[in-house]
C-alpha cells in the first residue's frame, strides 16, 4: 500500500468519499428517507426528518469506513483500486473517520426519542460485528436478517410514531435481509472462498445463492400477500397489486439477465436490482397499510 507518499487534499477527500461506499449507502439513505416520510405523514416535521436521516446516514458511513479498515489486508491483494490500497487514505485515517461518523450519529440522535437511539445502537452493533469477523461466517446472513427490519422501526421511532403493524415488517424484513446479504456477497464470492472466508454465500455456492435470493424475495411477497388477504395487516389493494406485479417482473428479470452463468461484473447490477426490489416491496407495503 502506498500510504507514505505525499497526497493532495483533493486525493484525501476523494478517498474518504470512496471509503463511504456511496452507492450502497445511498440505497440505505433512500430507504430510511421513505420510511421517515411515511412516519411523519401528513404533518412533516422537517427538523425531525433531517435528524433521523442524518443520524442513519452517519451510521451507515461509519460502518462502511470501518469495513474498509478491517478488510485492508485482503483488499491489498484482491481489490487494489480501493482507497486504502491505493494510498488515498491511510488505515489510521479510515479508522478515525469511521469513529468520527459514529460520534456524529450519536450527537444527531440525542434530540430524538430514546427508542430511536436504542434501535440505532442495535443496528450499529450488528454492522460493526459484521465488519469485525461475522462477515466471514455463515452468520453474516443472520446479521442482515436482523438489521434490515430495524430500519423502518428506527424511522418510525425517530418520528415518535410507533405502530403495532410495524412489527409485521420484521418477518418480511428477515427474508429480505438474507436476500441482500447474499446479493451483496455474490460479486466477491470467489475471492472470499479463496481467502478462506465461510460466508453464507460461500457455503451455499454461486448457483444456490442466486436461487435463495429469488426464493426469499418471492417468500417475502407471498407472506405480505397472505397477511393482506387475511386482513391481519389490512392494506390498500390499489397499492399492493402493482407492487406485487413489479416484484414478479423484477424476479423474472433476475432469472433472465443474472445468474451463475453470466459474467461476474453483472452480479453488482444484480445486487442493485435485488436491493431496489426489496425496498419497493417493503416500502410499498407500508404505504399500502398506512394510506
Question: What's the arrangement of secondary structure elements?
Answer:
Elements lengths: L8 H11 L2 H19 L5 H25 L1 H7 L4 H4 L4 H19 L4 H18 L8 H8 L2 H9 L10 H17 L3 H6 L5 H5 L1 H24 L7 H21 L8 H25 L1
Uncertain segments are none
Structural class: mainly alpha
Question: How many DSSP-defined strands?
Answer: 0
What is the CA-atom radius of gyration, in angstroms?
19 Å
How does this structure look, described?
With 291 residues, the protein is mainly alpha-helical. It folds into 2 domains: 1-134, Tetracycline Repressor, domain 2 (Orthogonal Bundle), CATH 1.10.357; 163-291, UbiA prenyltransferase (Four Helix Bundle (Hemerythrin (Met), subunit A), Up-down Bundle), CATH 1.20.120. It is 75% helix and 0% strand. It has helices at residues 9-19, 22-40, 46-70, 72-78, 83-86, 91-109, 114-131, 140-147, 150-158, 169-185, 189-194, 200-204, 206-229, 237-257, 266-290. The longest helix is centred in the N-terminal third of the chain and has 25 residues, at 46-70.
The gist of it:
With 291 residues, the chain is mostly helical. It has two domains: 1-134, Tetracycline Repressor, domain 2; 163-291, UbiA prenyltransferase (Four Helix Bundle (Hemerythrin (Met), subunit A)). It has helices at residues 9-19, 22-40, 46-70, 72-78, 83-86, 91-109, 114-131, 140-147, 150-158, 169-185, 189-194, 200-204, 206-229, 237-257, 266-290.
Amino acid at each position: 500500500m502506498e500510504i507514505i507518499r505525499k497526497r493532495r487534499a483533493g486525493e484525501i477527500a476523494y478517498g474518504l468519499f470512496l471509503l463511504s461506499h456511496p452507492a450502497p449507502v445511498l440505497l440505505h439513505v433512500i430507504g430510511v428517507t421513505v420510511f421517515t416520510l411515511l412516519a411523519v405523514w401528513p404533518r412533516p416535521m422537517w427538523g425531525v426528518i433531517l435528524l433521523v436521516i442524518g443520524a442513519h446516514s452517519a451510521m451507515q458511513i461509519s460502518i462502511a469506513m470501518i469495513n474498509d479498515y478491517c478488510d485492508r489486508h485482503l483488499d491489498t491483494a484482491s481489490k487494489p483500486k480501493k482507497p486504502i490500497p491505493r494510498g488515498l487514505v491511510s488505515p489510521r485515517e479510515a479508522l478515525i473517520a469511521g469513529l468520527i461518523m459514529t460520534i456524529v450519529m450519536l450527537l444527531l440522535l440525542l434530540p430524538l426519542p430514546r427508542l430511536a437511539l436504542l434501535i440505532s445502537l442495535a443496528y450499529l452493533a450488528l454492522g460493526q460485528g459484521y465488519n469485525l469477523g461475522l462477515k466471514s461466517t455463515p452468520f453474516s446472513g443472520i446479521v442482515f436478517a436482523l438489521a434490515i427490519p430495524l430500519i423502518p422501526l428506527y424511522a418510525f421511532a425517530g418520528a415518535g410514531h410507533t405502530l403495532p403493524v410495524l412489527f409485521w415488517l420484521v418477518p418480511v424484513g428477515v427474508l429480505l435481509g438474507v436476500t441482500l446479504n447474499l446479493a451483496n456477497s455474490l460479486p466477491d464470492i470467489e475471492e472470499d472462498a479463496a481467502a478462506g472466508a465461510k460466508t453464507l454465500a460461500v457455503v451455499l455456492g454461486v448457483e444456490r445463492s442466486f436461487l435463495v435470493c429469488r426464493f426469499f424475495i418471492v417468500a417475502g411477497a407471498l407472506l405480505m400477500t397472505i397477511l393482506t388477504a387475511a386482513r391481519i395487516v389490512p392494506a390498500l389493494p390499489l397499492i399492493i397489486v402493482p407492487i406485487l406485479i413489479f416484484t414478479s417482473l423484477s424476479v423474472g428479470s433476475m432469472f433472465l439477465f443474472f445468474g451463475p452463468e453470466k459474467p461476474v461484473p453483472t452480479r453488482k447490477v444484480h445486487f442493485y436490482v435485488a436491493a431496489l426490489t426489496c425496498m419497493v416491496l417493503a416500502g410499498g407495503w407500508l404505504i399500502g397499510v398506512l394510506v
